[in-house]
Amino acid sequence: MKKFLSFLLAVIISISLTIYIPVNAYADTNQTQQSDKELYKNLSEIGEVMQYIKENYPGNITYDQMKDAALKGILSSLDKYSEYFSSSDLNAFQQSVSGVFSGVGMVIQQNPDGKFVVISTIEGSPAEKAGIKSGYVIKAVDGKDVKGMDINDVVDLIKGKTGTKVKIVFEVNGIDKEYEFTREVIKINPVFYKIINGIGYIRINEFNNNTTENVKKALDYMDSNNVKKIVLDLRDNPGGMFEEAVNVANFFVPEGVVVSVATKNGKDEKYYSNLKKTKYKLAVLINGGTASAAEILAGAIQDTKTGILIGEKSYGKGTVQVIVQLSDGGGLKLTVAKYKLPSGRCIDGVGLMPDIKVLNKSGDNQLNKALEILK
Predict the structure, then answer these.
(1) Would you say residue 217 has pLDDT above 60?
(2) pLDDT mean across residues, the chain
(3) Which of 12, 164, 180, 285 has the most neighbouring CB atoms within 10 Å?
(4) Are 149 and 187 within 8 A, CB to CB?
(5) Which position among 292, 314, 340, 369 bears the catalytic label?
């Protein structure tokens, strides 16, 4: 039992060290000692249960499996954004927010019938160069039939070390075709831009490590074409990296507070824009899929009256999460704070209300309204 309890303590200690915040040094010593006693008592009880399961459960289960299940249970008892990651899940999550991975460059989804369908290919990727088109159905990867598999497992089969090869069988118009790809480093560009009748259009799909630099490229393009009016499309943008949203806000929001983060200790940490003078007339498109970091940007623009919001009420995610890596390679995504917009409002569970409400009933009414207003 002592050996097993040491195993549990090692897990807890690794968590505590990773998320340690200096302000905790001001905590009351007696209260901390009492919390430690409660922690050890609960760990002892958990250890007893896990050891009893190990000795008496007729199926095969390891302490690691029970530990993973216990940690998932703990995190699921908190808010809906906090969760535990296994090492493979953490790696996949980190890749998704970094915007860089090694693969062939396809965006796929699983249809209701279970088929894995190519939605699009990334510009310059092996998949695009090979002529892979939207609608191709993935049948097998390196000889493994993907029928009945989870989409994450299919993605893991396609991804791999840069320079290695992967064979994928697609169903194209009822005929199976096999393609061989050499995996490359794929850098996801979350920004799309163009000019529509003299008005700039910039769509941000998510806030990953590449967002700020690509928004800068889009704005340089607008400046080179003397564009002063911009539609910023944040619809169905689920958010992403907090810092990227603040960085992008520096292109549009005038000097001052962009967002404040209120932590458990009661102190607000403020993040600022250093923009001396705004240069664009803005219309921002939002809808129910606009969330988190995207709401920070849209909310800061609305609060500072830098632009108008058009569309539908946003999602309403007003909390901040941190990623904590554990000693075994797994990790936590833990909610640690709520954020407030420049006006001091918190939109968690409330969302942003558009200045002009427009439903997309036919065509793209929201974009058309934005273009009409900016004329």
Answers:
(1) yes
(2) 86
(3) 285
(4) no
(5) 292
Bridge partners for 165 per DSSP = 182
Instruction: Please report the domains of the chain, with CATH numbers, ordered by start residue.
Output: 2-77 (no CATH), 100-187 (2.30.42.10), 191-374 (3.90.226.10)
Asked if 115 is an active-site residue, the reply is no
CA nearest to 158, candidates 173, 169, 171, 147 = 169
User: 294: burial class by Cβ within 10 Å (0-12, 13-18, 19+)?
Assistant: buried
Q: Which of 125, 303, 340, 369 is catalytic?
A: 303
Question: What is 346-375 written as a DSSP string?
Answer: --TTT-PPPSEE----SS-HHHHHHHHHH-
Per-residue pLDDT tens over the stretch 222-272? 999 999 999 999 998 988 889 999 999 999 999 999 999 987 777 788 999
User: Distance between CA 330 and CA 88 in Å, rounded?
Assistant: 8
Cα 359 versus chain centre, distance: 26
Number of residues written out for the chain: 375
For 115-147, the DSSP string reads -EEEEEE-TTSHHHHTT--TT-EEEEETTEE-T
Confidence of residue 33 (pLDDT cuts 50, 70, 90): low
State the first-to-last Cα distance of the chain, in angstroms, to the nearest integer.
74
